[in-house]
Design a protein that fits this description.
Strand content: 5-15%
Strand order of the largest sheet: 3-2-1-4-5-6-7
Number of strands: 7
CATH architecture of the largest domain: 3-Layer(aba) Sandwich
Bound molecules: NADP nicotinamide-adenine-dinucleotide phosphate
Distance between the termini: 29 Å
Radius of gyration: 18 Å
Length: 256
């Protein structure tokens, strides 16, 4: 597709060991990016590199030394990061009174502080080179509120706010910053939500999954490759005017 040329650009994707991140890595590799696949599960990353090429970058995004080690590895093996996809995330769920400080801090550490630090690390190089793409995989929980998800919703609203602030700051630099905001996606994260609903309500797995599907006006879970499609669409030169946007991929569940 014209405007999607990637010129072998280097794309660092976090949370790339499975789910949405693995689908994004595969899509970006297919488009000609050199993909740095980052997550903690080294074996899963190596399997993905075997299948799609690129570099496995074992990294705990909440550990500053681990992140720096990962960034150094990417710089040494591939070169400077042109595209950063902040996708690693965790989701826990509880009514407000049962949200522990540990759960709150864990959620913000992975979903908000880590994307902030990674973005801060790579954006100056992008600005100096006059080109860059930063995509945050947020959630439609970054656009509206849901019950029993105080920490998750706060972290995802935070990411959308971070994206908007950076979009204002970076508008003249050649770096674009956007967020992709999925509804429930068919990954381990949704499987865990289905298991929680089963435990809390005694429903069957099918009925619990149906509750999540019903939230989407299209009555289904989103597939990981649909989120990957939205990300890849933001990366080419022709997408340079798409900046500061929070793009929902949720079947029309949230309309802003
Ligand atoms: P998933 O299947 O649970 O995968 C989560 C990914 O994040 C894994 O690759 C995991 O890798 C990585 N990760 C978690 N903690 C990490 C840490 N401390 N350091 C490095 N990597 C870490 O989740 P998913 O559904 O693909 O979700 C991906 C993103 O989409 C998340 O930001 C999530 O909030 C967002 N999202 C998901 C849904 C959904 O319904 N699934 C909806 C909206 C938004 P390792 O375990 O190997 O480290």
């Amino acid at each position: 597709m014209r405007g999607m040329e990637t010129n072998g650009r280097i794309a660092l994707v976090t949370g790339a060991s499975r789910g949405i991140g693995a689908a994004i890595g595969a899509a970006l590799a297919a488009d000609g990016h050199r993909v740095a696949w980052a997550a903690r599960d080294r074996i899963a990353l190596e399997r993905l590199v075997d299948a799609h090429g690129g570099l496995a970058v074992p990294m705990d995004v909440t550990d500053e030394a681990s992140v720096q080690g990962g960034l150094d590895l990417v710089a040494a093996e591939l070169g400077p990061v042109d595209v950063l996809v902040n996708n690693a995330g965790v989701a826990e769920s509880a009514p407000l009174a049962r949200v522990t400080d540990e759960s709150w801090e864990r959620t913000l550490a992975v979903n908000l502080t880590a994307p902030f630090r990674l973005t801060r690390a790579v954006v100056p190089g992008m600005v100096a080179r006059g080109f860059g793409r930063v995509v945050f995989v947020a959630s439609n929980a970054g656009l509206t509120g849901y019950r029993y998800t105080a920490a998750y919703c706060a972290s995802k609203h935070g990411v959308v706010g971070l994206m908007r602030a950076l979009a204002a700051e970076l508008a003249t630099t050649g770096v674009t910053v956007n967020a992709v905001c999925p509804g429930f996606v068919d990954t381990d994260m949704s499987a865990a939500a289905i298991a929680r609903i089963q435990r809390a309500t005694g429903r069957s797995a099918e009925a619990a999954r149906g509750l999540l599907e019903d939230l989407n006006p299209q009555k289904r879970l989103i597939q990981p490759d649909e989120v990957a499609h939205a990300v890849r669409m933001l990366l080419g030169d022709a997408a340079r005017g798409i900046h500061g946007q929070a793009i929902a991929v949720d079947g029309g569940q949230v309309m802003k």
